[in-house]
Specification:
67 residues; 1 helix
C-alpha cells in the first residue's frame, strides 16, 4: 500500500509505503529524511533493503529478492 500527501503544511509525510498489513516500511518526509521501519536512514543500503522488503511483501519479488 502506498499513501501520499503532497501538500505538507503540517509536516505530514510526502510518501509512505506500507506492507499489506498496514505496517510502515518506508516514509519520505518533507525535510528530506527517509525512514525505514520508523528509523531514520543513515545510508543507502537501508533504503534498498526497505524497498526490497516492500516488493517481497507485495509479491513482486521472491523472499530471496528474485523475481
Amino acid at each position: 500500500m502506498i499513501t501520499g500527501n503532497y501538500f505538507t503544511p503540517d509536516k505530514n509525510p510526502i510518501l509512505t509505503i506500507c506492507s499489506k498489513g498496514g505496517k510502515e516500511i518506508l516514509r519520505f518526509d518533507p525535510s528530506g529524511d527517509i525512514f525505514v521501519h520508523g528509523k531514520l536512514v543513515e545510508n543507502d543500503k537501508e533504503v534498498v533493503q526497505g524497498f526490497r522488503k516492500f516488493l517481497v511483501d507485495q509479491g513482486y519479488l521472491g523472499s530471496e529478492g528474485e523475481s
